[in-house]
UniProtKB/TrEMBL annotation:
Residues 305-673 form the DNA2/NAM7 helicase helicase domain. Keywords: ATP-binding, Coiled coil, Helicase, Hydrolase, Nucleotide-binding. One of its GO terms (biological process) is siRNA-mediated pericentric heterochromatin formation. The lineage of its organism: Eukaryota, Fungi, Dikarya, Ascomycota, Pezizomycotina. Residues 129-236 form the ZNFX1 domain. This is Helicase ATP-binding domain-containing protein. It comes from Talaromyces atroroseus. It comes from the Eukaryota. InterPro entries: DNA2/NAM7-like, DNA2/NAM7-like_C, DNA2/NAM7_AAA_11, P-loop_NTPase, SF1_C_Upf1, ZNFX1. Residues 688-872 form the DNA2/NAM7 helicase-like C-terminal domain.
Length: 1054
């Protein structure tokens, strides 16, 4: 294919990227909008670095020196980096000190892990993957893509150092927005380092052999194109630059901006006035047609079914320029937010800018927007990571597709596309010698002459030397350089071995969960239409000289060089010519990327033309930072941040654009905090995980707290007493249905002493506890609870995987959506019944995540009518004061009300009798021990037996059992219960496992055996016996005498 044909073919594809608004001719009726100059002004400010101050001199993406630890911020002798501590108590001395400190903390959190990864690999070049880093070898450049966002470089690589076959569709490795570092393979970060951000990870290419991924190089001056250069690439497993880079840039820009609310945010000023626009016009309709002065005439009686605390919170939102609302679990903070937004929108004037609503996660944002849609369906959602089908219809991309956009005058978008097209032509000419069509023979003599590797005389003599024997046949088509080389070159081949490792479920499953959380909670891409697109130019250089001796072409006539030395001379010429091409290429990359910035300005200008007339715009806090140039140009007066306590401070600071008059923060600082990639930055003295919400509340800045919860039955809500001392119950929670199969028991702490374990990724799990939880889950389903009404929570991914695996393998749950989540991913959610697996059980009384009160708060507050905890109660209570309080609440009750013990109290729905179990039937869940036909037959037989029994003399049977028990056990049982009611809950050993685990996969009715496989029969009536205690029981050793040598009953025995 000729150069001309290549250009024509690619150019034909480009017009589809042209904006609809960039048409010169407009109709008489078409609306014309002038592109706002504020967007360009903002971008120019963001691009300007100040070398006088360290934090203002950093580029958006870290440079190689920073990743290699060569900056002045790092003390090379002592091996540490100096960071200004975060001040969470008391006022900051200045707003500049505040901005710089948060920038430095965020920068370290973004850079440190990759910097460490590079240091590890530099020290040990043969290092394989660890739980901290991922290493990719045999990395080669295979082409470039002329993207609207910039030049993307496609590389192929081998993940062999992982030691496993990676399930890429479930893996968070190399997702778009991840930061990586590359170095020549023969250098391995000793002197050279290239920093790049993953531009795209096409699934069809990442799964090939070799795998391929697209990169944006951080520094134009370091861009490379050489298809024969081998690289090594490293990535930190944790950390995600895309979620912080735009916030850091916003903090730098704010240094030279007006900073609204700085007197409260930095100076902790406690006197909070009303918003300026309210001061000018305080008249507003609340929930009637009557206007009132909300500053002086606020009604004393709540309206619109709001309780008193919600009514006061609503007043705070509408009348305070900085409104902070704490909403404990189930108190309806989202309801208050929606009510406030409805009133703010109803009072909004036609010429007012949009109201901006942001949330930490996409999921929380979409939930809020779905509530808003009921009365404001014309909102616009910025960012394309929504998983909600209804919200997707209101993304900016969909709105642009479904409506006519105003014609823009003075927009940068149209000219930018024209410049991109021209620059693509120029760069194609530069790289054409390395195209696929040029790869069938060595680089041409003309190429070397053009790029200064051959002098004019050398070139002429080389061509003249072939003039006498290149007149006919194939020789006439061969280049003089190819003829001169003869057999002095060979093909450059890269061998990617067939990786035959086994698939490791642990990593795949863990990374799958991480990937889903990242996709939903971090806006790492713009709209889906912004996925990598553009013309792809493949690169290939087939030949390399056979000898690589360090020789120079010091003669004018290359034909005088012996054939055996020509390969090394060819390699020398290649290096010399490529150096010239590389300089030219890097300059062109710089120019192209500058045009891409112009194109981004033009895109924001186009978005502005649509968004300026919107009433409400929703986005994540990350999306707000990313689009801050656009948001600033819209000049919003009102910004509401939902989940503000789960967001670290800097993104909320970035939301304070210059036009802001009213900032509303809604959240709960006693639930989940923000997260950091570097755990050393959490806690004293850096406190990077502390939100602005929490800091302001702890420094006595005025806030309102909701106090009436509508989620949990009182028995569950009481567990939150150590955390919320003023939380009350709404009357509606008293009427919630009981848990089938559990009688009046709505909460219970099942205690055990089964030891924990650690998986290959250092996550904790507890095998026996996982089986017990899964079996109880199945029991609840058999008792009549819908699978969708049960959620299993745990603090550890390792345990989540174990429980989910056991449940998914059970045939009774096939095809059903099973909800098993980590606590961190379940904030803001609730379900009817929650099973909490605590996992930790060790001699050292280490409880890890269970010691973090914010996480515990979330775990204790997700259930509505049934909450069941599984764990080593005595160890956990002894290790942590909060858990001690929880155990006391569940255990310091009369025997009949006690909700903790070593046996689960199961209740027969028909007769109200209780059965107690302290072990699970693991084989019931594994179901791998017997053929399908045998399983079905056994199951059918036992089911038939039970049905016959249930429809027969069950009442007579119960009467006989009761008489026998009363005669033989009543006096001894009552004496024991009276004595042990005063005993410490955990003084005694738990009941040992006296029964046998069920080995029969179909035994879901009874499991009574004498150890020899014989069924135990009652001599009086020759029917299966069942152990029942209708009254109180002891949670620890109290049942040991009663059980005697009787077998342990299984949860599946009902």
């Amino acid at each position: 294919m000729s150069v001309k044909a290549f250009r024509t073919q690619r150019a034909a594809k480009w017009p589809k990227y042209r904006p609809r608004g960039d048409v010169p001719a407009t109709s008489a009726t078409e609306l014309t909008v002038k592109a706002p100059p504020e967007i360009r002004q903002y971008v120019l400010k963001a691009l300007k670095l100040d070398p006088k101050q360290r934090w203002l001199s950093y580029p958006e993406i870290p440079a190689a020196e920073e990743i290699m630890g060569l900056t002045s911020a790092i003390n090379q002798e002592e091996g540490h980096i100096d960071i200004v501590p975060n001040q969470i108590s008391g006022a900051w001395e200045s707003r500049e000190e505040y901005l710089s400190a948060h920038y430095e903390l965020l920068r370290e959190d973004s850079v440190a892990l990759l910097r460490d990864a590079v240091a590890y690999l530099k020290e040990e070049p043969t290092l394989n993957d660890t739980h901290e880093i991922c290493v990719y070898e045999k990395v080669y450049i295979t082409g470039i893509t002329f993207c609207p966002k910039g030049i993307a470089t496609k590389v192929s690589f081998s993940p062999a150092r992982s030691g496993k076959n990676i399930v890429w569709q479930y893996s968070s490795r190399l997702i778009a927005g991840s930061m990586v570092a590359l170095s020549p393979a023969n250098d391995c970060f000793k002197t050279q380092c290239l920093v790049a951000v993953v531009a795209a990870r096409p699934m069809d290419q990442i799964k090939e052999r070799p795998s391929k991924v697209d990169l944006f190089f951080a520094d134009d001056k370091e861009a490379s194109f050489d298809p024969q250069q081998e690289w090594i690439m490293v990535q930190a497993r944790s950390g995600y630059l895309e979620s912080t880079r735009h916030t850091m840039k916003a903090l730098q820009v704010m240094k030279n901006e007006k900073f609204p609310f700085s007197e409260h945010i930095c100076g902790l000023k406690k006197d909070i006035g009303c918003p300026e626009y309210v001061k000018l016009d305080p008249q507003m309709k609340l929930f009637s047609d009557e206007y009132i002065n909300i500053l002086t005439g606020w009604p004393s009686q709540p309206q619109n079914n709001l309780d008193e605390s919600q009514w006061e919170a609503l007043r705070q939102i509408l009348t305070k320029r900085l409104a902070i609302i704490q909403g404990p679990p189930g108190t309806g903070k989202t309801h208050v937010s929606v009510a406030a937004l409805r009133l703010l929108l109803s009072a909004r004037k036609e010429e007012d800018p949009p109201i901006v609503v942001a949330a930490h996660t996409n999921h929380a944002l979409d939930q809020l927007l779905n509530h808003i849609a009921a009365w404001a369906p014309d909102y616009i959602r910025l960012g394309g990571r929504s998983l909600d089908e209804n919200v997707k219809k209101r993304t900016l991309f969909e709105v642009l597709q479904s409506s006519s956009t105003p014609h823009l005058t003075g927009s940068a978008l149209g000219p930018a596309y024209g410049k991109i097209h021209a620059m693509r032509k120029k760069m194609t000419e530069t790289l054409m010698p390395f195209s696929i069509e040029s790869s069938h023979e060595p680089l041409s003599a003309e190429f070397f002459h053009k790029n200064g590797a051959l002098t004019e005389k050398q070139y002429q003599l080389l061509c003249d030397g072939t003039s006498g024997w290149t007149g006919t046949g194939l020789q006439a088509k061969r280049d003089p350089m190819s003829i001169w080389l003869g057999d002095g070159v060979t093909e450059h081949r890269v061998s990617y071995e067939d990786i035959s490792f086994s698939y490791e479920e642990d990593e795949a499953d863990l990374e799958y969960e991480q990937l889903k959380e990242i996709e939903q909670e971090r806006d790492y891409l713009e709209d889906d239409i912004e996925a990598l697109k553009g013309v792809f130019f493949p690169l290939k250089e087939t030949f390399v000289g056979i000898s690589d001796a360090n020789e120079r072409a010091n003669v004018d006539n290359l034909w005088e060089i012996p054939p055996g030395h020509r390969g090394s001379i060819y390699n020398m010429l290649r290096r010399r010519a490529k150096a010239q091409v590389l300089r030219r290429y890097r300059q062109q990359v710089k120019e192209y990327n500058a045009i891409a910035i112009e194109r981004q300005i033009g895109k924001w200008e186009q978005d502005y033309a649509v968004l300026k007339d919107a009433k409400l715009i929703g986005m994540t806090t990350t999306g707000l930072s990313k689009n801050r140039a656009l948001i600033s140009a819209l000049k919003p007066k009102i910004v509401m941040i939902e989940e503000a306590a789960e967001t670290i401070e800097a993104p909320v600071t970035a939301a304070c654009v210059e036009s802001l008059q009213h900032l509303i923060l809604v959240g709960d600082h006693k639930q989940l905090q923000g997260s950091c990639s570097v755990t050393d930055l959490e806690g004293d003295p850096f406190f990077l995980n502390v939100s602005m919400f929490e800091r302001l509340v702890q420094n006595d800045v005025e806030f309102r707290s909701l106090s009436l919860q509508r989620r949990m039955v009182p028995e569950i809500r009481r567990l939150l007493t150590p955390i919320y001392d003023n939380l009350e119950d709404h009357q509606s929670v008293n009427g919630l249905a009981k848990v089938p199969g559990m009688g009046d028991v709505r909460s219970f702490f099942f205690c055990h002493r089964w030891p924990e374990s650690t998986d290959s990724l250092f996550s904790k799990y507890n095998h026996n506890e996982a089986i017990m939880v899964a079996t109880f889950f199945l029991y609840l389903v058999f008792a009549g609870t819908d699978v969708n009404n049960i959620t299993v929570l745990t603090f550890y991914n390792g345990q989540r995987k174990k429980i989910l695996k056991v449940l998914k393998e059970n045939r009774h749950l096939q095809g059903k959506h099973i909800k098993v989540h980590t606590v961190d991913s379940y904030q803001g959610e609730e379900n009817e019944i929650v099973l909490l697996s605590l996992v930790r059980s060790n001699a050292d009384q280490k409880i890890g995540f269970l010691a973090i009160e914010n996480r515990v708060c979330v775990a204790l507050s997700r259930a509505r009518r049934g909450f069941f905890i599984f764990g080593n109660g005595d160890k956990i209570a002894a290790a942590n004061p909060l858990w001690w309080e929880v155990v006391k609440i569940m255990g310091d009750e009369p025997m009949e009300s006690r909700r903790i013990g070593y046996h689960l109290p199961l209740t027969c729905e028909n007769h109200g009798n209780k059965e107690f179990t302290s072990q699970a039937a693991s084989a019931n869940l594994q179901q791998q021990t017997r053929p399908e036909s045998e399983v079905k037959a056994s199951y059918a037989e036992k089911l038939r037996e039970y049905q016959e029994f249930a429809s027969g003399d069950v009442q007579e049977h119960d009467r006989i059992l009761a008489e026998v028990q009363q005669a033989e056990k009543a006096e001894d049982m009552l004496a024991r219960l009276d004595a042990e009611a005063e005993a410490n809950l955990f003084d005694d050993e738990p009941v040992p496992n006296t029964g046998t685990l069920i080995e029969d996969a179909a035994s879901i009715v009874f499991s009574n055996s004498n150890g020899n496989g014989d069924q135990i029969l009652n001599d009086n009536d020759n029917v299966h016996t069942r152990r029942r205690w209708v009254h109180s029981y002891d949670p620890s050793k109290g049942l040991e005498k009663l059980t005697g040598n009787a077998p342990e009953i299984s949860l599946l025995d009902l």
